[in-house]
Design brief:
Blueprint lengths: L4 H10 L9 H19 L3 H9 L21 H6 L4 E2 L2 E2 L6
Antiparallel strand pairs: 1-2
């Protein structure tokens, strides 16, 4: 499938892309390559893809139980030691309005 220069100009206008007359042959070549690739993908039969879908393994739930993973406050001191400023058990930051 080939795209005509008029179709390419129309496409460029729809995309609001400035396209000079010197650029048309290069873009026409690129668009022809893209359209040929899309046609090749469309040529693949759907029966081949159905076989691939059947072979997908069944999924199961991989979530962990909703429980406390760590003891509360266990890492607080280590984390606050790396903060540039702190106030009690909190990181101190500048007031942002």
């Amino acid at each position: 499938m080939s795209i005509t220069p008029d179709e390419l100009k129309n496409l460029a206008a729809l995309a609001r892309l400035p396209l000079s007359d010197e650029e048309i042959p290069a873009f026409q070549k690129d668009m022809d390559a893209i359209l040929a690739y899309v046609a090749e993908i469309n040529a693949v039969s759907s029966s081949d893809s159905e076989d691939a879908v059947v072979s997908v393994p069944e999924h199961h739930n991989v979530w962990r139980d909703d429980a406390d993973a760590n003891e509360s406050g266990h890492y607080t001191e280590a984390l606050l030691a790396n903060a540039p400023a702190r106030e009690g058990d909190y990181v101190k930051v500048k007031k942002i309005l």
